[in-house]
Structure formats: C-alpha cells, structure tokens
Amino acid sequence: MTAEFDPGREFALSLDEADELGSFRERFNFPRARHGLDPVYLCGHSLGLQPKDAVRYVQEELEDWGRLGVEGHFRSRRPWLPYHRFATSGLSELAGARDDEVVAMNTLTVNLHVLMSTFYRPTTSRCGILIESTAFPSDRFAATSQIRMRGFDPAHALIEWKPRAPDQALHLDDLQQILDDSGDEIALLLLPGIQYYNGQLLDMEDICARARAKGCFVGLDLAHAIGNVPLELHDWAPDFAAWCSYKYLNGGPGAVGGAFVHAQHLDGDGSAQLLGWWGHAEETRFAMAPAFEPAKGAELWQLSNPPILSLAPVLASLNIFHEAGMDRLRRKSLHLTDYLGRLLEHRLQDRVTSITPPDARGSQLSLRVTGAGLDAREVFRRLEQQDVVADWREPDVIRVALAPLYNTFADAFDLVERLRSAVEGADGRR
Ligand SMILES: *Cc1c(COP(=O)(O)O)cnc(C)c1O
Fold first, then answer.
1. Of 69, 150, 280, 429, which one has the greatest count of Cβ atoms within 10 A?
2. Residue 116 CA from chain centroid, whole number
C-alpha cells in the first residue's frame, strides 16, 4: 500500500489519474441520479453494473434467434448447443481452476443443492453440515433442507461456527475447536469465501486443509468472492464451489451462475449426481437413447440447456475481466479500500467505522454508524438522498463496495464527504 495519503479531493483525482485500470469505467452503464448529484454507485456486491457490451451480446442472440430459429443451435455467432463453454475459460481463470473443473449453469442456490446432492453424503455417525451462524439465509435454508431430505434432524445436524463478539469476525481457532470436538460427525463444511454481511475474507486454503484433515467435504459459496479476490480453487481443493454472476461478475439480474468440482471427483459415471440430458456426453446426446453416458468434467452436473439470454451478458463481462486481469484488479481494490479506510478515520473518526477486518477484506467495507445518539437508519436515508447507492443491513450496517472495474478514488472521496454531511444532518436533527 502507498504510504502517501492526503485528505483532499485533489489527491483522490491524482490517484485516479495514475490508475492503469481507469479506462474500464467507460465500458459500463451507470444508473441515473435520482436527486441531482453525481451518482456514486457502491452496490457491486449486490448487483454489478451493466457492461455496455452486454447489451450488444444479448441483442445478437435475439437477432440470431429471429434470423435462424432452431438453426441457431449450430449456426449462430455463438452456437447455443455448446454455449456454456464460451464462459469456461473466463470462469476457470477467475476460479483458479482447470477448464474441466468449472461450468456455467443454473443460479447459486440451485447449484448448492445440485452439488450437495453429490457431496453431502450423510451417515448415521457423520451427518453434520457446518455453516457459519451468520450465513446468508439461502445457504442456511439449503443446508437445512438437505439435512431434512436425507432423513436427519437439522436441530442436531446443522452445526454453527459463530463469530466472536465484539468484532463479529469469524476466527479459525474457533472452527478448529469445533473440528476437534466434533469433526467426526461433520460430513460437509459449507462456507463462504467472503462473508456477505461484514465483508470478511476467509482463508479458504486453510479451511480446506483443516476440513480435509478431519475427513470432511468442503463446499465454498463464492457469491462475494468471485471477481472480487483472486482464487486458486484447484490448489486449495475444496470439493466443490458455487457462485452467482450478478454481483462482482456484472452478469445482470438473475444471470447464470457457476460451479466448480475438483478434479479428484471428475471421473464419475453419473451414479452420484442428479441427472439431466445436458450432463449426457454431447456427441451422443441427440441419439436420445435411454442409457446415460456421462459428459466429461464438471459438465456432468448440468441438467438443462442453459438460458442463453441470461448467459450472454456473463460472456461480455468475462471478456472485460480477462482484459483487466484479476491481479491488477485486486491491487487496485486493496488500494481503494485502504484509501477509504484512511479517509473515514480522518473525516468521521468515532462516528462511522468499518467492521470489516482490515487485513481480510475484498472490495466491500461494512460501515457501522457508531456516533453517540446517532440514528443509523437516518444517516443512511440522508446518504441515499445524496445519490449514494449503497445498501442497508439490519440493524445498523451500511455496506459499500468499491468495485475496481468501475469505481474510482473520487467515488471513495465523495462517499465520505456525503456521509459526513449525512451524519451532521442526522446529528443536527436530534
Ligand atoms: C447473493 C447470495 C445468494 C443469492 O442466491 P441466488 O440463488 O443467486 O438467489 C446466496 N448466498 C449468498 C452467500 C449470497 O451472497
């Protein structure tokens, strides 16, 4: 990190001037301001902005459908039959995986179920699924229902890794304690790469190693990690991982998500997964024979032919990631959040503080309004009134993400100035 820091706007502009990724901002469409100020979009952790190319990609698919009808499966610009494969190299690059370990398919929660149907193999003595106690509700629901569907009782089999008060962070020592005490009863760890609420980046490699040592399977939910931090899934070797593509991946609302299955599990014959025709070997799929022939690699877990219109924007976005490069994006992201942290300390010390662990973060900082007597909700309302697009999480957290593809140091500066004005406004109202 640079040692240099200056709290003025000029300094922010000079950092933007020196930013080698600065030109990528122009490749995105920005929502219009609702209240007349220059909008500051900080919701890439929730819905990434639209790449301008995504519009063209979707239009091309609509044109090809109109122009070619069913022939589009073979003769369109990007033939629909192997369409998911156009996402493969982009996804394997971001996941740190081999091409045959990843596949674009479904949406996140669906993929968690599809993959748990293979990798959650409960027995009477080992039926537990470990999640973090503050898990995103969908992950908790998915794990709970998997346990129940296999005939076990979530009250006993759902095991929770709790964050420590007062910092709210998850500590690996606590995970180790659970594994030491009851690792033999845990079939699967289902954990995030980055915790959605406080933005904590978990040491995925370490978690995988600890779980392996106890004979547990590991599944990673990378909703907030893919396209945000570099991943090395093949080497870290979780058994599986899944993600959505509409957060940092900028794939658009409800975009097709992705899945990773580690190489060690890729020689399956189709007896350990839910089956559909898209998991059948492509060469013989259209013989429509009753016997199942497994596709190679993670493609075996595919069920249906993919929704082309929801996959097209993902392709457009993956090209941008490939051009920018995850290492450069990570460097800029760390610089952006470091700058934002310092500016907050300088301008809003004791009134707004980040609860994201400073040494374990992605592009998101979760801010807590801590000033005595301040109404956090009112601060957030006043922030929205100034065209800052961030999000509110009960009871008192404002999440902001500085996505290095399209956010700037000036965005960070403007956020802090508007936050300060929101805090002062809310304070004056008391
Ligand atoms: C965003 C998010 C989801 C959303 O699930 P969908 O199936 O894509 O609707 C699930 N889990 C986590 C951890 C998330 O951050």
1. 280
2. 19
Q: How far is the CA of 361 from the centre of ligand 1 (A)?
A: 19
Where does CATH 3.90.1150.10 sit in the chain? 9-30+326-428
Q: What is the CATH number that goes with domain 9-30+326-428?
A: 3.90.1150.10
Cα→Cα distances 63→68, 84, 252, Å: 8, 19, 20
Count of residues for the chain? Answer: 430
CA of 131 to the centre of ligand 1 (A): 14
Tell me how far the alpha carbon of residue 109 lies from the centroid of ligand 1, in angstroms. Answer: 6
**Alpha-carbon distance 104 to 413, whole Å?**
37
Ligand 1, closest atom to CA 112? 7
- d(CA 59, CA 88) in angstroms, rounded, equals 21
C-alpha 88/C-alpha 132 separation (Å) is 30
Question: Domain 58-323 falls in which CATH fold?
Answer: Aspartate Aminotransferase; domain 2 (3.40.640)
Taking the CB of residue 289, how many other CB atoms lie within 10 A of it?
A: 10
Looking at the chain, the domain(s) classified CATH 3.40.640.10 span: 58-323
Q: 249 CA distance to ligand 1 centroid (A)?
A: 13
The reply to whether the predicted model has a pTM over 0.85 is yes
Nearest CA to ligand 1 atom 15: 223
Give the pLDDT of the chain (430 residues) as one tens digit per residue.
555 899 999 999 999 999 999 999 999 999 998 888 999 999 999 999 999 999 999 999 999 999 999 999 999 999 999 999 999 999 999 999 999 999 999 999 999 999 999 999 999 999 999 999 999 999 999 999 999 999 999 999 999 999 998 778 999 999 999 999 999 999 999 999 999 999 999 999 999 999 999 999 999 999 999 999 999 999 999 999 999 999 999 999 999 999 999 999 998 999 999 999 999 999 999 999 999 999 999 999 999 999 999 999 999 999 999 999 999 999 999 999 999 999 999 999 989 999 999 999 999 999 999 888 899 999 999 999 999 999 999 988 999 999 999 999 999 999 999 999 999 999 877 6
Closest ligand 1 atom to the C-alpha of 257? 8
Residue to substitute in 45, 107, 108, 116 for testing ligand 1 pocket (most ligand atoms within 8 angstroms of CB) = 108
Pocket of ligand 1 (CB under 6 A): 107-109, 136, 138-139, 192, 196, 221, 223-224, 244
